[in-house]
Write a structure and sequence with these properties.
Layout: E1 5-11, E2 15-21, E3 27-34, H1 41-56, E4 64-71, E5 75-76, E6 81-82, H2 95-102, E7 108-112, H3 113-124, E8 133-138, E9 142-148, E10 151-152, H4 183-187, H5 189-198, H6 211-219, H7 223-247, E11 251-255, H8 263-276, E12 286-289, H9 296-309
Parallel strand pairs: 1-4, 4-7, 8-11, 11-12
Antiparallel strand pairs: 1-2, 2-3, 5-6, 8-9, 9-10
Helix pairs in contact: 3-9, 5-6, 5-7, 6-7, 7-8
Family: Belongs to the ROK (NagC/XylR) family.
Organism: Streptomyces ovatisporus
Protein name: ROK family protein
């Protein structure tokens, strides 16, 4: 079994990562390219093609039996297409057909990046052994995936658990997805930075104007930076509480670049969750940082591939 490998792909607005992954979740060979997110769709596919080419050049490629893809969403697993909010050049882009063609006809499993992260955390991380979990990726966007009844629950299209586009502010900003007041519009990294800058925060000389820079300022006590993280935490808490109320999860796992802010995010998140998750059956809800780290997307794409192919 150990010689049976999955080609795992993790596609986001910032980077396209690939790896050959074995059945115990080890990443044997890796490749990565920046995502040309503002470029035409063919250029994005060309970057993905380079990642696949680098993996295919490995002596271990012959062990590849299938491809698992976790992509920024929305995805359409039935049609094999993707329309990531943060990659405008891909709208109903036939990703599965393109990848199958470039991998010599290997079977391809497609899920949203949040579902991939949920698969990783349920297999090897903070949601291991849990019957019900919401796992979230908070980075350039906000994605999510669900574990229900001890099983990964991608839904028919591969998007179930996409918490980033739950509306938590009925009169809020319009979101690129077409909705209004979405969790992502408040809690994603770029939106945390945008809110802080609009509030008058400025990075230091040669400083970091990203959410990581805001987190550092919040840690140092900057009130505007802290307020931007408080607002993000409230948006996340509202979405988590709504999800827990609907499907009775035991744990919410938060990963992605923004979660690296640590207690700057998690302290206000736990406080806000106590305020929103008040019904008896959601009061015991745990919140934990993800454990699978930056490899969650790749480990999860492989895990989803094995799990869903085995159904």
């Amino acid at each position: 079994m150990h010689q049976d490998l999955v080609v795992a792909l993790d596609i986001g607005g910032t980077k396209i990562a690939g790896a050959l992954v074995n059945s115990v979740g080890e990443l044997l060979v890796r490749a990565q390219r920046p995502t040309p997110s503002r470029a035409p769709g063919e250029q994005v596919m060309a970057a993905l093609g380079e990642v696949l080419g680098e993996l295919a050049a490995s002596s271990q490629w012959s062990g590849a039996r299938a491809v698992g893809i976790g992509s920024a969403g929305p995805v359409d697993a039935k049609a094999g297409t993707v329309s990531p909010v943060n990659i405008p050049g891909w709208r109903e882009f036939p990703l599965v057909a393109n990848v199958r063609e470039r991998t010599g006809g290997l079977p391809v499993t497609l899920v949203g990046d949040g579902v991939a992260m949920a698969a990783a955390e349920h297999w090897q991380g903070a949601a291991r052994g849990r019957a019900g979990a919401l796992c979230m990726v908070v980075s350039t966007g906000v994605g999510g995936g669900l574990v229900l009844g001890g099983e990964l629950h991608p839904g028919p299209s591969g998007n179930a658990g996409h918490i980033g586009h739950i509306s938590v502010d009925l009169d809020g900003d319009s979101c690129p997805c077409g909705g209004r007041g979405c969790v992502e519009r408040i809690a994603s990294g770029p939106n945390i930075a945008r809110r802080a800058l609009e509030g008058g925060w400025r990075p230091g000389p040669g400083g970091d104007g990203s959410a990581a820079g805001v987190a550092a300022a919040a840690r140092a006590g900057d009130p505007v930076a802290r307020a931007s993280f408080e607002r993000a935490a409230r948006a996340l808490a509202a979405g988590i509480a709504a999800t827990a109320t609907l499907v009775e999860i035991e744990i919410a796992v938060v990963g992605g670049g923004v979660a690296k802010a640590g207690e700057v995010l998690f302290a206000p998140l736990r406080r806000a969750l106590a305020e929103f998750a008040t019904l008896s059956f959601v009061q015991g809800l745990e919140v934990a940082p993800a454990r699978t780290g930056t490899d969650a997307g790749l480990v999860g794409a492989a895990a989803a591939c094995w799990h869903l192919e085995g159904r």
